[in-house]
Amino acid sequence: MSYPGQVYWGDSGEVSADFRPESAPPDLGERGGDAIHYLATTTAARGEFGLYRVEMKARAGGPKTHFHKTISESFYILDGIVRLFDGTRWVDAHKGDFLHVPQGGLHAFRNDSDAPAEMLLLFTPGAPREEYFEQVSQLAHATGEERARFFDKHDSYFVE
Predict the structure, then answer these.
(1) Domain residues of the chain, as ranges?
(2) Hey, how many other C-beta atoms are within 10 angstroms of the C-beta on 107?
(3) C-alpha closest to that of 83 among 92, 74, 70
(4) Is 60 helix (H, G, I), strand (E, B) or coil?
(5) How far is CA 99 from CA 33, 67, 73, 96, 106, in A?
(6) CATH assignment of 28-158?
(7) Sheet-wide strand order for 108-110
(8) What does pTM read for this prediction?
(9) What count of other Cβ atoms lies within 10 Å of the Cβ of residue 3?
């Protein structure tokens, strides 16, 4: 392995950092409920990754077993208990636990506990997951064909 190709060509650096305080409101949902904080969108990270903080209310559930063909997904538990499926078994993940799922890896997550939970989601390389997060809840009345197009567009392939 070697370092990736050069991206910045200046000689003195630049002011381009983006600070986001913990107190910033979520980008989607409501604090204390189901919410997503866009910490580093694909656009902000220049396509390198996407990083999101996910707050789940008690008994929030989660997506069924699925995989991605173009992106990896990693989970880092910040608080509470998140049930993670690693393709073989479900585990109760606690604060500090981490799961990395490479492209093609079966996985799922959910909050089945009676308490809220919080985790970081990391997608690499970056992908427009914001659109996925913002529109997935609108599929309740979609046709099977519309759902299939949406999930295909967003590199999400369900197996259950």
Answers:
(1) 28-158
(2) 19
(3) 92
(4) coil
(5) 23, 14, 8, 10, 12
(6) 2.60.120.10
(7) 90-93, 82-85, 108-110
(8) 0.91
(9) 5
